[in-house]
Please model this.
Amino acid sequence: MQNIMVIGCGMIGKTIVADLAGEFSVTCVDRETDALAAVHARTGAETREADFNDTQSLAALVADQDLIIGAVPGFLGYRVLETVIRAGKDVVDISFFPEDPFGLDALAREKRVRAVVDCGVAPGLCNLVAGRWNARAPLKGYECLVGGLPLEAKPPFRYRAPFSPGDVIEEYTRPARYRAKGKDLTGLALSETEMVHIPPGGELEAFLTDGLRTLLTTMPDTPDMIEKTLRFPGHAAAMRAFREAGMFSREKIDVNGVSIAPLDITSRLLFKHWKYKAGEADFTIMRIRVTVAGEGPDTRQETVLYDEMDRDSGTMSMARTTGYTCTAVARLMANGKYTRTGISPPEYIGAREPCYDFVMRELKKRNIQMSEGTF
Model:
């Protein structure tokens, strides 16, 4: 039985552990003892307490493992990934760090490590779809609209966050890269808002965020590429007001003699409003449209994902769609079906039809399915 270590025991990390436990010998690493105790009680997986900032200790922990899964917060992701690669361990990562993962490509190839990054739902599953179509015929256009939302849109924000508010706010402040008519451009997150209707999600608003990530590098000849985040109407305007008022700023200000970053206060205040309450359910919705080279209706392909919380297990949809995409790729690697060394964004996997089909079968087993058609 192969040894798999999951670094990070948050909502998605524990979902990954539960999905892999039994089939593999799974160890979960985190600094939160309560979270480790809960995942052990649920899955029987081994647990280790560790400080993710201690790279020396982390390298020692992964030494006897066959495959590592990185599920830490984004600000820690690159450092953890580099530590794992230096240790010579294959890895699947979902931490969505802001740094360029290709900065570790030479190191990964030198260590002969297979390192799959951005392996969640978006980025992740959408990249698989893009890679699949681009391998069949060069893409002329790519658009992804994606969001994770509560089934019940309660005021005042009509939003819940499966992650910490700080992680969500990062999407609302980071400059958003996209491509139009062959030119790489940068816009403000939360801009270019449009209303869309994607059944069964109903009427939603889509706005610009920095979601293309590696696709801008791996598909340089695709002239039009954009990704937008989906929320219930009115959310973008509220978040723009927060941002423009300086409430998302990391620059510290003096408040009665105390130096504090406004973002820290905002995150703390929003946490109680955005945190899912017991019994509340979520859904994930994603629409991918690609235009491929050629003529006729078959050149305009649409893929739609809609998924809801698994009420039987209590697994949130965002954890399902992110975590199970990751575990599908982990199985692909554990079974030796994907052998490319170096940094691999998911579009590289999607470009290999047998690998794409394997991941889709694994998702279907877990009742995550995508519909396909033309538009």
